[in-house]
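Researcher: We're teaching a course module on how sequence relates to structure. For the next exercise, students receive a sequence and then see the predicted structure as tokens, so they can try to spot secondary structure elements on their own. Here is the exercise chain.
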Amino acid sequence: LGDYEWLLAFEADELHRLTDAMRAQRAVEARLHVREETPFFTGPRVELADWVETQPCE
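Model: And here is the predicted structure for the students to work with:
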């Protein structure tokens, strides 16, 4: 599989726990096989119904 065929989803109550997990994963030997580093996006979890309410109406 290529690098873009993987998607990892993480969830934590505190952001530093996610960054600590990412740093730990980047320190393993398997990391040597990753060709490109992809962006790391963060944001609050929002229920779909709440998200829909925030979208502009056309």
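Model: If you want an answer key for the exercise: The mean pLDDT is 82. The chain is about 35% helix and 0% strand.
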